[in-house]
Design brief:
The two termini are 17 Å apart. The strands form three sheets. Strands 1, 2, 3, 6, 7, 14 and 15 form a seven-stranded mixed beta sheet that branches. Strands 10-9-8-11-12-13 form a six-stranded parallel beta sheet, with helices on both faces. It has a two-stranded antiparallel ribbon with strand order 4-5. The chain folds into two domains: 24-134 and 266-314, Alpha-Beta Complex (Quinone Oxidoreductase, Chain A, domain 1); 137-262, Rossmann fold (3-Layer(aba) Sandwich), CATH 3.40.50.720. It is α/β, with parallel strands linked by helices. It has eight helices and 15 strands.
Length: 317
């Protein structure tokens, strides 16, 4: 499925099988998760994709010629030489290339990937349930680490990432407070099923002061709301790659040594740590499945917020 230009529907296209270069793997794609980042690319909110483009960066498949399953994530290449790479911050590499943005991704039967950036996947996760671990899980895990180990954790936006990170946070002994779209009773019940102590609308205040909050929803107005909900020295982490404009807010919301920060991409270390942790929790992903040819419908489903857990494209039966 090919994106020719932003704000256009993806179209089915017959492309030649990609040819791996030195240090690359040719992977037969089994499934590919559908991420909100894909929406940001398709809707033109991330403005410099290669075009035409095959979207998708939560890829699970088999290396052609080998009996080996791998996962291909968002971070597809770094230069290894810049000051960020040399200081264990490859997620900030200025020359980084990203799967499904700079590099063709997994909305296709085959994908090529740098073998250094492919992950071994834990046993016990069928392909459909492994795919969301590769971005929803990884970015959520990085955000959780940056939020610190405070007892009371708020999660704003209860989609693919939050449904995974709720389980990890509970495993670590944290108490989870989930914020959904106002009136989303089904989403709030889903959060409680996964272990959230409290669930309500994003227009509500939590029943007690939070130590940290992670904002997964790409809604800038949630930033001052989250700052109001955390106590002194509280941390608010913006976990998305794109967000609508943040409205102005009084300095008193930040005062008291509160911290506001973002998360950018992931590192291979994040992936190795999280994929080792997931079966220990154990993380269980809930997925809604669409065939590859219904990729546009899957994106619309995500755009409307009609997901319970994660959305995954079935590429190979």
């Amino acid at each position: 499925m090919l994106l020719d230009a932003p704000e256009r529907a993806l179209r089915e296209a017959a492309l030649p099988e990609p040819q791996p270069g030195a240090g690359q793997l040719l992977v037969q794609v089994h499934v590919c998760g559908v991420c909100r980042t894909d929406l940001h690319v398709a809707d033109g909110e991330l403005t410099h994709p290669k075009l035409p483009l095959v979207l998708g960066h939560q890829i699970v498949g088999t290396v052609v010629g080998e009996d080996r399953r791998v996962g291909i994530p968002w971070l597809g290449w770094t230069d290894g030489e810049c000051r960020y790479c040399r200081s264990d911050r490859e997620n900030l590499c200025d020359r980084a290339r990203f799967t499904g943005y700079d590099l063709d991704g997994g909305y296709a039967e085959y994908a090529v990937a740098d073998k250094r950036f492919c992950f071994a996947l834990p046993d016990g996760y069928p392909d459909l349930h492994a795919a969301p671990l590769l971005c929803a899980g990884l970015i959520g895990y990085r955000a959780l680490g940056l939020a610190g180990d405070g007892e009371r954790l708020g999660l704003y936006g209860f989609g693919a990432s939050a449904h995974i990170i709720t389980q990890v946070a509970r495993h670590q002994g944290q108490r989870v407070f989930a914020f959904t779209r106002p009136g989303d009773a089904e989403g709030q019940e889903f959060a409680r099923e996964l272990g959230a102590e409290w669930a309500g609308g994003s227009d509500e205040s939590p029943p007690e002061e939070l130590d940290a909050a992670i904002i997964f929803a790409p809604v800038g107005s949630l930033v001052p709301a989250a700052l109001r909900s955390v106590g002194k020295a509280g941390v608010v982490v913006c976990a998305g790659i794109h967000m609508s404009d943040i409205p102005s807010f009084p300095y008193e919301l930040l005062w008291g040594e509160r911290v506001l920060r973002s998360v950018t991409n992931l590192t291979r270390r994040d992936g190795e740590e999280f994929l080792s942790l997931a079966p220990q929790v154990p993380v269980r992903t809930e997925v809604q499945v669409f065939p590859l040819e219904q990729a546009n419908e899957a994106l619309d489903h995500l755009r409307r917020g009609e997901t319970r857990g994660a959305v995954v494209l079935q590429v190979r039966s």
